[in-house]
Design brief:
The chain is of the alpha+beta class. The chain has helices at 10-17, 42-46, 55-64, 74-88, 115-130, 142-154, 165-172, 185-193, 199-203, 207-225, 256-276, 315-329, 362-379, and strands at residues 2-7, 27-30, 37-40, 68-71, 94-99, 102-106, 134-139, 159-161, 242-253, 279-290, 303-312, 336-348. Helix content is 39%, strand content 20%. The strands form 3 sheets. Strands 5-6-1-7-8 form a 5-stranded mixed beta sheet. Strands 9-12-10-11 form a 4-stranded antiparallel beta sheet. A 3-stranded mixed beta sheet has the order 3-2-4. Helix 4 runs antiparallel to helix 5 and helix 11 packs antiparallel against helix 12. A hairpin with a 6-residue loop joins strand 2 and strand 3. The protein is built from 13 helices and 12 strands.
């Protein structure tokens, strides 16, 4: 049996955890630069606020309902997510973190265990130990566990266990096909043309027809809805094929220097992510973007891909390349809105192809990067950084409604008396 766990209204729940007065109120969390709604409380959903609504379009509705608005506080959300995953790991021998707010668990040998009681225990204990409300779906396959989770939310239940053929058939009977894990927009249109409206309709199709129309991925989903596992929980995360860091500016940038600073910050972020997964990158793509929606301004979308002489993950190496690349593609006279860096050609750390005719002080690079990581882990991210990555960051994204760093910054710790 598998379990799928996710945090209810994740970002909103994280904010409410440290501010209980928000319970029962309309709460939304905005995306980068406070642009769009990316998380909503149930109260916000009730007044018609939709995911990805632009903030300026729903501003009056939020004001009318005395809503509380937050900018994205990613360090807080990531830390609370890590606490949740650590708690879930107590109940399984294999945990696969699927995203910041959801994970799959292998429940193992459940003979002699009351699954309903066990699932309820997980739900209650996680809430008690982290303060985060979760929904748990349990089924004989990962697809059915995910479906059980969604069905539980529709029924406003903390968990749902699909451990019998009767329960599975009953749940699939009226479950919308568009809500089934793995059915994207393209497959949805194709299936509706065939008269498929529910998960049960899809399950009733012939396997050969599904494989022909939806390739092997659709066939696997079809098999999983029949309770035949085709997906496995991976206890070792796959190495990323690409790592990217990008961010829109708080205002248009026309000068080179602030864009260089932003590129340096993104290079440092990419380098840190590479080191965290013990990887190195062989190529680096640096790009600039103007605002394609602003037709009054000339458009410019330059990018450049640089092959790194030796695969690298050190901050100062990637920063040097990024800054030089920005200087090469930047052109005056444009209103740049965004810059970003993407690392590709990811290989395991230690598998560097050296050049007989060029020197490379790999051990020195690693020692320096390790020292930076140690200091930043102890005193806070960004405590030690390269000079190219300034402290002022006047170009940084707009966060007018940012909450405190309750768990990641000493000065924002909650004090009780």
């Amino acid at each position: 049996m598998f379990a799928h766990v996710d945090i209810n209204n994740c970002y909103v729940s994280c904010e409410r955890l440290f501010n209980p007065s928000l319970e029962g109120r309309v709460v939304v969390v905005l995306s980068n630069n406070d642009g769009c709604v990316i998380a909503r409380s149930n109260e916000a959903k009730a007044i018609g606020i939709k995911m990805a609504d632009a903030e300026f379009m729903v501003r009056q509705n939020l004001k009318k309902n005395n809503a509380v608005i937050f900018s994205s506080n990613y360090p807080l959300y990531a830390d609370m997510s890590a606490r949740l995953m650590n708690n879930l790991a107590r109940y399984t021998y294999t945990l696969m973190v699927y995203s910041i707010d959801e994970a799959f668990m292998a429940l193992g040998d459940i003979r002699g265990i009351d699954l309903e009681q066990h699932t309820g225990t997980i739900s209650r204990n996680v809430m008690q130990h982290t303060g985060l409300p979760i929904t748990v779906g349990v089924g004989p396959t990962m697809a059915l566990a995910k479906l059980a989770n969604k069905a539980a939310k529709k029924q406003k239940r903390p968990y749902l266990v699909l451990d019998t053929t009767e329960k599975i058939s009953e749940t699939l009977l009226d479950f919308p096909i568009e809500d089934v894990w793995g059915v994207g927009l393209q497959y949805y249109h194709k299936l509706t043309e065939c008269g498929v409206k529910t998960a049960q309709d899809f399950r009733a199709l012939q396997p050969d027809f599904v494989r022909q129309e939806m390739t092997v991925q659709g066939w696997r989903l079809h098999q999983e809805l029949w309770g035949k596992p085709c997906n496995v929980i991976k206890d070792v995360a796959e190495r990323s094929k690409g790592i990217e860091s990008s961010q829109s500016f708080s205002s248009y940038q026309t000068a080179l220097e602030p864009i260089e600073e932003a590129a340096a910050m993104h290079a440092a972020t990419v380098a840190l992510k590479l080191r965290q997964q013990k990887s190195m990158a062989m190529t680096l793509t640096i790009y600039l973007r103007t605002n394609k929606h602003n037709v009054k301004h000339d458009q410019h979308y330059p990018s450049i891909t640089v092959k790194i002489p030796f695969a690298a993950n050190s901050t100062h190496q990637l920063t040097r390349i990024a800054v030089q690349a920005i200087r090469a593609i930047f052109q005056p006279g444009y209103n740049y809105m965004k810059t970003g860096i993407r690392a590709t050609g990811i290989i395991p750390e230690g598998e560097i192809q050296y050049n007989l005719f060029a020197g490379y002080e790999h051990s020195r690079e690693q020692q320096l990067a390790g020292l930076m990581d140690q200091l930043n882990d102890r005193y806070g991210r960004g405590t030690l950084r390269l000079a190219a990555d300034s402290f002022e960051r006047k170009w940084a994204m707009k966060q007018e409604f940012l909450s405190k760093q309750y768990t990641t910054d000493w000065k924002d710790l909650v004090i009780t008396r």
